[in-house]
């Protein structure tokens, strides 16, 4: 989740929105594999050349939908000015459980290709968000010299995998209890790596 990406020009944002809305509508009617660029542009009333000004293919369009929806939903759960601290991490973890549940309901993630690409996009967004917090933290007393990007990737994959198990009913606990359990595991591990690594 890049926090340094410049805002899009309103016309660019509007065109992307038309294409995303058209693609969403088509996904409710048919599989992603059977949707053509021509169908997307026809539904959006935009020409093919304009489509390729914005996206390389329909999978890039899908990727933008998943990432932007994930960013919006997670932002709603985070406190104002979130950062690397226990309060923000707790809000993020709880938000992930709820946001991914909504994302799976919104998108047709039953399709293998769609599911694979969507999961990859969400994990990358999550890792980027955590990495951004780590980079702006005032101090990271890393006694073992572990790199922040590795910490971010580890946390994101651990959390993402846990949410997938929970979503499939393999872990019959509430989102709040799952958040509590995950934070216990993560904070105990981080405390072993570096005492006081995660501020209150």
Write the layout of secondary structure elements.
Layout: H1 10-29, H2 37-44, H3 48-54, H4 58-77, H5 86-106, H6 112-136, H7 148-167, H8 175-193
Helix pairs in contact: 1-2, 4-5, 4-6, 5-7, 5-8, 6-7
Number of helices: 8
Rounded mean pLDDT score? 81
Tell me the distance between the termini. 23 Å
Percent strand: under 5%
Query: Can you tell me the CATH class of the domain at 59-193?
Result: Mainly Alpha
| CATH second-level architecture of the domain at 59-193 | Orthogonal Bundle
Radius of gyration equals 19 Å
CATH-assigned homologous superfamily of the domain at 59-193 = Tetracycline Repressor, domain 2
H-E string: HHHHHHHH
Main sheet record: none
Written account of the structure:
The protein has 200 residues and is an all-alpha fold. The chain has a domain of 135 residues: Tetracycline Repressor, domain 2 (Orthogonal Bundle). Helix content is 70%, strand content 0%. It contains eight helices and no strands. The longest helix is centred in the middle third of the chain and has 25 residues.
Summarize the structure.
The protein has 200 residues and is mainly α.
Quickly list its features.
8 helices; DNA binding; mainly alpha; Tetracycline Repressor, domain 2
